[in-house]
Fold this sequence. Notes:
Helices cover 8% and strands 43% of the residues. It has three helices and 13 strands; from the N terminus they run H-H-E-E-E-E-E-E-E-E-E-E-E-E-H-E. A twelve-stranded antiparallel β-barrel has the order 1-2-3-4-5-6-7-8-10-11-12-13.
Amino acid sequence: MKIFKKNLPFIGLSSLVLLTSSFATAAEMSDMDHSGMDMSGDMSDMAHSSMDMSGDMSGMDHSGMDMSGDMSGMDHSGMDMSGMQGGQPPADTRSPDYSNGVPYGQYGKPMMMGSMPLWGVSVDDFGYQFDEDQINFEATGWYGTDSNRIRLRTEGSAHTKDDREIDSLSSLAYWKPLSIFWNGEAGVAYDTENDNAAIMAGIVGTAPYFIETDARAYLYTDGQLRLDLGAEYEWRLDQHWVVIPEVGLTAFSKDDHDNGITKGFNEMETEVRLTYETFSRQLAPYVGVSYETALGKARGQRRQENESVDSSSLTAGVKFWF
């Protein structure tokens, strides 16, 4: 008799669940309070396969329920839990990074650094070539984000004696990353040496072993196609001293004797610089040695015009960025 009284709440509760299970489908369970229910008994043989849990249970309070009993044998395979939230998150659920424009309380929407429009100027070469009596320059300016930029680039030389001409190749291009190490660019260009405009396209990036590589093609209005190839490597001696060897090749698609151009590779330029980077890294003076040689049919044409085929020179200058 004592055993019967001890298990009476549990047996009564089980009977009540079985008697009312047929009415539970349409019942409203939002106001049910289970805080006083004792679930500490052995419920391993209970089957919940026919229970209907599709009602609204948002207001049910289970805070006081004792679930310490053994429920390992309970079968919930047939329970209808359609009244509870499913596997798909609600439409207003926030992402950890973005919230579809909804601010986080008193704070504004976070801005990722890669999406911020910035600008920069880099002068990779501004130096004097002694034997040629000329100033060489190469500079790039850009504006945009990590995904889209507009780049203005110019390179060339200014002669300090004789005709004092300035020969330059300038381009305005759209820049976009192609992969982790490579970027693509396309735009328009103008060459003052042959007074001709062109459309350009190129690939710039870092090859294996950290070799900075660039390849640009220029299609001029007269049908001439120019290809510029370049590569350089930074051999860092310590935190400030850097040795930078670089090489460049230029090729054309057809002969143009008026401008001293022959079909194929025309010339190769190499230079080795010893650079000292200051503490800010934004300013780096250098000294170096450059060598230039004509290639292919260009060697014969230069000899006919009594021009030098090979030349070398000491160089000194500075590179900086801001």
